[in-house]
Amino acid sequence: MTTSCAPTGAGATPAERWREALERWAIPPHILDQAPESPWGHPPKLFAAGAADGGAPATPGAGPSTTAARRALGAGGTVLDVGCGGGRSSLPLADLAASITGVDTLEAMLANFAAACEGAGVAHHEVLGRWPAVAAGVPNADVVLCHHVVYDVVVILPFLEALTAHARRVVVVELADRHPATALHPLWRRFWQLERPSEPSADLFVDVVRSLGWEPSAERSSRPGRKLAGPRADYVAFVRRQLCLPAARDPEVKAALGDLAAQAPTPITTVTWAPP
User: Fold this and answer.
1) 52, 75, 96, 174: which sits with the fewest CB atoms below 10 Å from its CB?
2) Taking a C-beta distance cutoff of 8 angstroms, is the pair 207, 223 a contact?
3) Closest alpha carbon to 97 in 75, 80, 68, 71
4) Do 128 and 105 form a contact (C-beta atoms < 8 A)?
5) Residues near 119 by Cβ (< 8 Å), separated by ≥ 6?
6) Domain-by-domain residue ranges, the chain?
7) Residue 115: which residues within 8 A CB-CB, separation 6 or more?
8) What does residue 192 show for φ and ψ, rounded to 5 degrees?
9) Number of other CB atoms surrounding residue 255 within 10 Å
10) What does DSSP assign to residue 54?
11) Taking a C-beta distance cutoff of 8 angstroms, is the pair 208, 14 a contact?
12) Which residues pair with residue 145 across a beta bridge?
């Protein structure tokens, strides 16, 4: 059975430990070479504001991330949502915000974001590109959000520095306590006899933020588990691509997801800090 690499040395900085932990998530070449489609990316319709599987936008005041953002925003403030997807993170602020800027790497995600903002009656602006490469062309905001993105960021320090430089009042980062792909560990064992890593974690992320000289506050909460049973063809295909399997294996993937239907709520952490 394939195992993950040895732990990083004790003398490594938090950012180095973060990078090395994420690098251990690389899919082994002998599996990746068999993939008929790219395992990367997120289908926009699965990540639109109000999509199924527990992803509806929070109501105003619900959850520590929304609460922290609303407290700092006040009436008439501006919001920057990095990795905005369809707007799940920032739309709960629409009743307070003067405007919301969304940054994402996919045009389809930004189209969903724009439509959600229009529906909420809030001014909006979209920026296509990868953070922090596009940061220079993005205006500062009172509140900067970045939800469920940082586990995709191997080189974390420039990313966080750019978030902080764009915030006038607060940065709000939400992440799962463990890498979100941890939920697929049983499927990797089932289909490939592959053990996946367990790091990095939200605790390590807090250490990374603190290493930059800021004073992060961390609050634990949870969000409902995804209901994976039933005819969810799009989600099944998404998971199957992540597992580097061909479309013919969809029935097996659907059956495996059914085994995970009673998934518990996902522990998440809200990390906030004020710009210097």
Assistant:
1) 75
2) no
3) 75
4) yes
5) none
6) 14-178+198-225
7) none
8) -130, 0
9) 11
10) T
11) yes
12) 81, 172
Model pLDDT, residue 9: 56
Amino acid at 269: T
Question: What predicted TM-score, i.e. pTM, was given to this entire model?
Answer: 0.85
Average pLDDT, the chain: 87
Contacts 24+ apart (CB under 8 A), 36-40: 36/246, 36/247, 37/241, 38/241, 39/241, 39/242, 39/243, 39/244
Q: CA-to-CA distance for 202 and 200, rounded, in angstroms? A: 7
Element (H, E) at 211: helix 202-211
The DSSP call for residue 44 is G
Which residue has tokens 């004790």? 10
3-state SS assignment for residue 86: strand
What type of residue sits at position 253?
Answer: V
Determine phi and psi for 202, rounding to 5 degrees: -65, -35
Tell me what pLDDT residue 177 has.
96
pLDDT at residue number 153: 98
Q: Contact at 8 Å (CB) between 22 and 154?
A: yes
Write down the architecture of domain 14-178+198-225 according to CATH: 3-Layer(aba) Sandwich (3.40)
**Which stretches of the chain are assigned E, i.e. beta strand?**
78-82, 99-104, 123-128, 141-147, 167-176, 217-223, 266-273
**What CA–CA distance (Å, rounded) separates 15 from 108?**
32
